[in-house]
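Session log. Operator J.P. requested a structure for one protein chain; no other inputs attached. Running the standard single-chain path with token output.
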Amino acid sequence: MAQQYSCGTVIVADDNPFIRELIQCTLSDIGYTVLSAGDGFEAMRIAMFMIGQPDILITDIEMPNMDGIKLARALRELVPCLPVLFISGKHPSEELSLYLLEPDTRFLSKPFYVAELQLHVESLAAAEGGRRGDLSSGCADIRAGLCNDVVYGLAMSKPEG
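Structure written below.
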């Protein structure tokens, strides 16, 4: 039976369809509604025409048409204090490093473990839920045992330590 609840709505913007699919499957499996976009302009269209507001933005930094930093700025004009998780295979630029000083903004380096993605999303959701008071606190309990150590669909062992 399909899940009948949502822990929140996440917009995912990445020009790599495989990454979008991985994030969408991971987050939808743990209770999120995920709306995917292949670039920043598409993500803006989704945000402008969706019912309600996004709870979290996950965006690649480098994308065609509109990069992730411009997307985050534009969406935060529509949804002030929108939590943002930037993902990239490159080190953060100086511009992004300054942006990361803002509240509810995180960075996740590619490749990443699904567990890392989930931890960042949970942290951002907790902050968003605390501000709004309406994200389900029960979602964390539901998701507790559902973590797979998979990155880009390939099984990987956890680093020891």
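Operator note: Helices lie at 17-29, 40-49, 68-78, 94-99, 114-132, 138-143.
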